[in-house]
Recover the amino acids of this structure.
């Protein structure tokens, strides 16, 4: 279940969290079996960093951290910080992500996909991912990043995702 401020509790099969899991699977990210169903334990070191950064959060049933970020003008943006980290050689990264748009169709429109690709060329950290009907902004940061860097990645992710949502939906604040 996912608690949504406007829709109440909704089944995971229709939730942004499910979309994120599907998006990561589509990207070819290997997800541990607990992410696909059973609850996991949250990363306690990450929890301490979020506390140190004074970021309020909830832990979802996947063990990930869900933050509702105030982006100003009465708007908020839902951001997830994944407990799971990914290794490549000596690199260990963590994902910070947020949905910026959801298409009524099964996939994003070609126009929106092109816009996201153009925006990716100008981003300082992170990139848009078009996954099925969702546009998801994903920042990958070092898993051992300090609290301030984590807070910066959360703020950037929320700001970029909300800007797209605002541009596409005017006054709508779904995510």
């Amino acid at each position: 279940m996912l608690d949504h401020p406007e829709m109440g509790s909704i089944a995971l099969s229709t939730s942004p969290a499910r979309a994120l899991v599907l998006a990561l699977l589509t990207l070819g990210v290997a997800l541990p079996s607990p992410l696909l169903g059973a609850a996991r334990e949250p990363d306690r070191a990450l929890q301490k960093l979020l506390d140190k950064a004074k970021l309020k959060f909830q832990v979802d049933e996947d063990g990930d951290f869900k933050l509702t970020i105030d982006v100003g003008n009465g708007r908020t943006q839902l951001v997830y910080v994944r407990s799971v980290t990914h290794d490549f050689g000596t690199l260990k990264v963590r994902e910070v992500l947020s949905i910026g748009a959801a298409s009524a169709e099964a996939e994003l429109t070609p126009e929106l996909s092109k816009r996201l690709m153009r925006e990716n060329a100008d981003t300082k950290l992170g990139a848009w991912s078009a996954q099925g009907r969702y546009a998801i902004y994903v920042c990958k940061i070092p898993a051992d990043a300090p609290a301030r860097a984590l807070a910066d990645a959360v703020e950037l992710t929320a700001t970029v995702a909300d800007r797209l949502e605002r541009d596409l939906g005017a006054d709508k604040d779904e995510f």
